[in-house]
Design a protein that fits this description.
mainly beta; 4-stranded antiparallel beta sheet; 11 strands; globular
Length: 124
């Protein structure tokens, strides 16, 4: 069983920064690929960024490319999402997810394990 716990969300003004963390546990977590997704009210869950535990290659949604950076600390079994130049449109619940087949997918259906989510609110 894999357990994912996100933290680091909050309220920030437009142009500000936040760093989200996702602590992962589970016997085989190092063989999974990891992803960050977000879901705003009334919208579908969307891919934000992805990373394997090897650290590369990382992938990003076009909407966050150049502003967000995904990284991982294998020793701590934790992945991070550094979010800079935040915009009100980035407001959403952010979820960490794990794919046991390590496909590096952008499709939420490929991810078997999910955290509880952390709220990010960007004020204008």
């Amino acid at each position: 069983q894999v357990r994912l716990v996100e933290s680091g969300g909050g309220l920030v003004q437009a142009g500000g920064s936040l760093r989200l963390s996702c602590a992962a546990s589970g016997r085989t977590i190092s063989t999974h690929s990891m992803g960050w997704f977000r879901q705003a009210p009334g919208k579908e869950r969307e891919f934000v960024a992805g990373i394997p535990w090897s650290g590369a290659p990382t992938t990003y949604a076009d909407s966050v490319k150049g502003r967000f950076t995904v990284s991982g600390d294998h020793a701590k079994s934790t992945i991070y999402l550094q979010m800079n130049s935040l915009e009100p449109e980035d407001s959403a619940v952010y979820y960490c997810a794990a794919d046991p087949r390590s496909r590096g997918s952008r499709w939420s259906g490929d991810y078997a394990y999910w955290g509880q989510g952390t709220q990010v609110t960007v004020s204008s």
